[in-house]
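Researcher: Quick test of sequence recovery. Tokens follow.
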């Protein structure tokens, strides 16, 4: 429960979005308006509630933790810009691939290997400069509060090409449903992706098991548009004594772009509405 409260405190102090009078509210009223994704660091009103769910079962089938090697950078925005979640997500993608292409972030080394384990370095002014560049190239706050999905893709592509590299996007979402096979393939190839969500449900990473027949889910619900970086997944199917599946949980490992609780699960379907999602590969 302490981890759950910690995530709640993070969002209350960090921000999200959005009230019905915001640009997103207007987007629903006007079908021609683009949906924008934003996290206003100075508005903590978008936390909704937390719930603790106890799942009692006879047995379960758990894929276990599946994620890319060395996770992802834990960047966040420390500037005075507002509604920068897309810019931070783009910087995380750049930082992840800077491990392989050092020219992606000038005057910066992505990380180092210690005893065969890769650790990403903390962000510096060089990373902050990437976020600032993306704020402009993505057109953040020019079509409403935040960044459109198209603005994200185009702005990140512009940055990557300015560093002499290319980026390819492959959809991982169809009709609001995340293609877990595509996520699995990306993880197996050590590639990451991004999700554009409208309302979401976060859980702390770690062991969910309370006993051999009970798991506990500390669920935290939020409202508003946000951009999450996807780097892994986990699926759990719960069965009763009659071999009937009583619950199926789909969890994605995501980087939130928040300064605390940067890496968590997002729980699909239960309070999470996905608009778009893409595997992002820089080469």
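Model:
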């Amino acid at each position: 429960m302490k981890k759950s409260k910690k995530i709640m405190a993070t969002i209350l102090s960090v921000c999200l979005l959005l009230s019905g009078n915001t640009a997103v509210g207007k987007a629903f009223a006007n079908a021609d308006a683009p949906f924008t994704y934003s996290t206003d660091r100075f508005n903590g009103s978008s936390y909704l509630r937390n719930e603790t769910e106890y799942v009692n079962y006879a047995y379960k089938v758990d894929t276990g933790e599946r994620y890319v090697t060395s996770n992802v950078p834990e960047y966040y925005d420390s500037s005075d810009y507002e509604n920068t979640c897309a810019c931070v997500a783009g910087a995380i993608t750049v930082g992840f691939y800077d491990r392989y292409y050092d020219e992606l972030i000038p005057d910066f080394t992505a990380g180092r290997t210690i005893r065969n384990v890769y650790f990403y370095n903390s962000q510096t002014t060089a990373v902050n400069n990437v976020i600032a560049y993306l704020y402009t190239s993505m057109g953040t706050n020019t079509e409403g509060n935040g960044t459109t999905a198209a603005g994200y893709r185009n702005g990140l592509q512009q940055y990557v090409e300015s560093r002499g590299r290319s980026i390819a996007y492959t959809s991982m979402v169809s009709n609001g449903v995340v293609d877990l096979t595509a996520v699995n393939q990306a993880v197996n190839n050590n590639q990451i992706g991004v999700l554009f969500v409208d309302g979401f449900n976060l859980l702390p990473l770690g062991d969910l098991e309370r006993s051999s027949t009970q798991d506990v889910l500390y669920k935290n619900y939020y409202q508003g548009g946000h951009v999450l970086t996807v780097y892994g997944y986990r699926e759990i199917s719960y069965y009763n004594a009659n071999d009937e599946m009583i619950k199926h949980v789909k969890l994605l490992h995501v980087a939130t772009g928040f300064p605390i609780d940067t890496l968590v699960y997002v729980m699909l379907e239960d309070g999470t509405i996905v608009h778009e999602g893409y595997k992002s590969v820089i080469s």
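The CA atoms of residues 99 and 149 lie 25 Å apart.
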